[in-house]
Amino acid sequence: MFEWKECYSCNISKIDNQHKRLFELADEIYTIVSVNDGYDHFDEIMEAIKALKEYTVYHFSYEEEVMRKYEYGDLDNHKIEHEAFINKISSINEEEIDEKQKNFLMDLLEFIVNWIENHILKS
After folding, report:
1. Which domains does the chain have, with CATH numbers?
2. Domain Hemerythrin-like: where (predicted)?
3. Rounded to the nearest 5°, which phi and psi values hold at 64?
4. What is the pLDDT of residue 121?
5. How far is the C-alpha of 49 from the C-alpha of 53, rounded, in Å?
6. How far apart are alpha carbons 33 and 109 in whole angstroms?
7. What would the pLDDT profile of 17-58 be if each residue is shown by its tens digit?
8. Which residues of 59-86 are buried (b: 16+ CB within 10 A; e: fewer)?
């Protein structure tokens, strides 16, 4: 579902590679939601969410450092968007996941798709 395209490139290879990794993490979540085996995937879901959160914290920190270094004019707004993403991932309710795994993951994927469209592609 999540496939990197060259039109997503910001022409900074390290940031592009980090964005590609975010796509991979989102695709892992999509893979979990696509499984129809009747089994509980709570542990896999929690691992995927933890990996997504840890990687985005790392990536956002690096990206903001580069933006500061090159005096990117919209850094403050970019940081606000980053904080909103981290807050969304941090506010995930484990009980909600356990009860409605597919619904939760579909909502999370929708959030990630919107993030990619509005943050990576437009800001």
Report:
1. 14-32+40-120 (1.20.120.50)
2. 12-122
3. -65, -35
4. 77
5. 6
6. 9
7. 999 999 999 999 999 989 888 888 999 999 999 999 999 999
8. bbeebeeebeeeeeeeeeebeeebeebe
